[in-house]
Design brief:
By secondary structure, the protein is of the alpha+beta class. It folds into two domains: about 120 residues, no CATH class; about 190 residues, 2-Layer Sandwich (Heat Shock Protein 90), CATH 3.30.565. Helix content is about 60%, strand content about 15%. It has a five-stranded mixed β-sheet, covered by helices on one side. A two-stranded antiparallel ribbon has the order 1-3. α1 packs antiparallel against α2, α2 runs antiparallel to α3 and α7 packs across α8. The N terminus is likely disordered.
Length: about 350
């Protein structure tokens, strides 16, 4: 059984292509009108008896538009075919175009219509008409060149549009990946810690439950927006850090400091959490008395400086999926508006993100 093949077209893209070709043909029609008008007036200024009535030039103009439209339309069917098919099609279309136009011109010149030709003209043979219309070959070459230039440009625009669409889709997929990465181990560890607090009826339990609720609401609901307020992102980080603190001893240094005011600034959701999550995962993994982590956020207008520094990194975490996704999102959404630095020295690792919101 032979498999069926389906092609799905986006109606918006199809209409965009049609509008492009309509505009291109309108420009060609204007250029053709200017050319024929200039030909008429130049000929009239040199030899008044040599010009034909205006209806003849109008017919010539309309005939050129019709044949060019059919000519361009026919070429679209062979544009992406094998080279030999394209060359053969171009030759066939050329002869059809040339001899159809010559045939129409022959019929007009021998029609005997004075309103169209002016004074009666001597009968012309078809061979004579063909022989004296070689100039139209040059016009055909110009129209052929214009078609391929326009076609290449249309393909370039389409490819650029597709790249942009893929970039947006890629960003959304990476954002979903970041959300999924946060869910498993963080929620497992948090629930385990809450269970321990509940067994001892610890006074921190109500606040911890409320922080978990805020985190889940942010990740599940608020993060479905393209951007969130900077204040929401910072509150999410604060709740996350407070819940993670439950896993460590009270003398472990874990600090979160915010300087400046959050107003109407907006940011891509879950953009900053990966740096904090990596600090807990790598910087505090040994849970020794020498472990520490500091998160500093400075806000000045629409400028954000976010810095995470911590202890005990054995190597730079540049190859993880989360960090790579954040870098890609930064490049897609904040190109030319961010600076990301990672440093390791004296058993201390730090990451600094400067971002123009």
């Amino acid at each position: 059984m032979q498999a069926e093949r389906y092609t799905i077209k986006n109606p918006a893209d199809t209409w965009s292509v049609k509008k492009f070709w309509i505009k291109a043909f309108a420009v060609y029609a204007l250029a053709e009108a200017i050319f024929l008008g200039a030909t008429y007036f130049i000929t009239y200024s040199q030899c008044q008896s040599c010009v034909l009535p205006v209806p003849f030039y109008l017919w010539q103009y309309l005939a050129n538009l019709l044949l060019t439209a059919l000519f361009w339309y026919g070429l679209t069917f062979f544009y992406k075919q094998a080279l030999w098919k394209t060359i053969t099609a171009n030759m066939l279309i050329f002869f059809l175009y040339y001899f159809i136009y010559a045939g129409m011109l022959y019929a007009i010149l021998n029609s005997g219509q004075e309103w169209l030709l002016g004074k009666p003209l001597q009968s012309r043979s078809f061979q004579y008409v063909v022989y004296n219309s070689w100039f139209d070959i040059g016009k055909y070459v110009v129209k052929l060149s214009a078609f391929y230039v326009l076609r290449f440009y249309a393909e370039y625009r389409k490819a650029a549009s597709q790249r942009l669409q893929l970039a947006v889709i890629n960003k959304d997929m990476q954002l979903n990946l970041l959300k999924q990465q946060l869910n498993p181990h963080f929620y497992f560890n948090t629930l385990n810690n809450l269970y321990g607090l509940s067994r001892n009826n610890h006074p921190k339990l109500p606040a911890a439950l409320n922080q978990l609720y805020d985190i889940m609401q942010y990740v599940i609901t608020d993060c479905n927006q393209h951007k969130v307020s900077l204040g929401q992102e910072i509150n999410f980080l604060r709740s996350y850090i407070e819940l993670e603190k439950l896993r460590y001893e009270s003398d472990t240094i874990i600090e979160f400091d915010v300087k400046g005011e959050t107003r109407d600034q907006q940011i891509i959701p879950l953009l900053l959490i990966q740096f904090v999550e990596n600090a807990f995962k790598h910087g505090l993994k040994e849970k020794s008395k020498n472990d520490w982590m500091k998160v500093n956020t400075a806000i000045a207008g629409n400028e954000l400086v976010f810095r995470v520094s911590n202890s005990n990194y054995s190597s730079l975490p540049t190859g993880g999926i989360g960090i790579s996704s954040v870098k890609n999102i930064l490049e897609l959404q904040y190109q030319g508006k961010y600076e990301l630095q990672m440093q390791q020295e004296d058993h201390c690792f730090s990451v600094t993100l400067k971002l123009s919101l």
